[in-house]
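Sorry to interrupt, but I need a hand with the structure work. Could you write out one complete protein record for me, on any chain you like? Just paste the record in under my message, thanks.

. . .
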Amino acid sequence: MTRRRLAILLVAALVGVVATIAWPTRQPTHWIVAHFTRVVGVHPGSDVRVLGVRIGEVVAVVPEGRTVRMELRYAAKYPIPADASAVIVPPSVVSDRYVQLTPAWVSGPTLPDGAELPVARTVVPLELDDIYRSLDELNTALGPTGANADGALSDLVATARRNLEGNGQALHDTLDGLSRALSTVADGRDDLFGTVANLQQFTSALARSDAAVREFNQQLAAVGEQLAAERDQLAAALRNLATALADITTFVRDNRAALADNVAALADITGVLVRQQRALIDVLDVAPLALSNLNLAYNPRSGTIDTRDNALGPYDPASYTCSLLVGVLPVAQVPKECADLARLLAAKGLPLTDELRRLVGLPPGGLSPGQLGSLPVVPVLPGLPGGPDQSNRDLTLGGILRGSP
């Protein structure tokens, strides 16, 4: 009894496992209703695909008046674009057809469950019967009851045959030349399109400069009108110019040797001027100043050229001499008279050289009012500026050279 129960339990478990494996797990699906003008080769169970991959099947195909209603079911995990269309695709002439939802979804809104596609969003393939029917209609239209009822089509064919007869080689050469011309144009398409682009830029520039172009045209028209109004004078000037050119030609022919010599001499002169260009520039720069100085130096009373030499500047001979001594000797070896002279000149507010300033400990370039008031007053030395004999001394260059008291 125990073995029988164990066997029953094993059989039940085996049946459960097989059922679990064989029975597919139900996945959520979406429904779509599509309306077609006709449905050929599609029936319930036909595939519904996206990019050729099966995602569902056709559930029902129901005629409704002049259209056909088709219900489609596909796995909900495959999103379909909201603007998708349904297309019946025939893989071959005899095989079963399937419904393709296109385009594939990439991003954006998706088609909701239960959506309905109108006839404008469905496409059916062209049937073989339609092709035969179109060919039959064409034959009928070109036949004896159509365009060739009065023999017009036959006359057209006969005329074309007569025109082309014997012109096969010429037609071949024409087509060959046309092919080569098109090949040349194709090979130079970069240059051609570059030319077109440059022409476009040129026209754009003209468009941007429309006002300037209009003004130029107006000025050109005004010049043309002026020349037209003075055409008689212009014609006379041209005739006189022709006469003058004839005279010049005769003159040049008669005096060719002399003109050649003159041109050669002129070339030599030009070469000299080029070589002396720097000197000429210097002369032209200096000559006006020299003439001005000469004019200022001329003394009309005596009729002589006078000069006003001032070798010592604003300083007296004693200051000049002490400045030379300060420049060549140590401060301790400079005579005491030079230091007294420097203090005296500073106290009087007279000009001092930088050497004399350094001798009495003053900064170069001048004294501040405080420094002037702090200097001690030194008695005036004989022979120095401000002394009793100052008015009797000759401070000119001649007096210094003579050593006058």
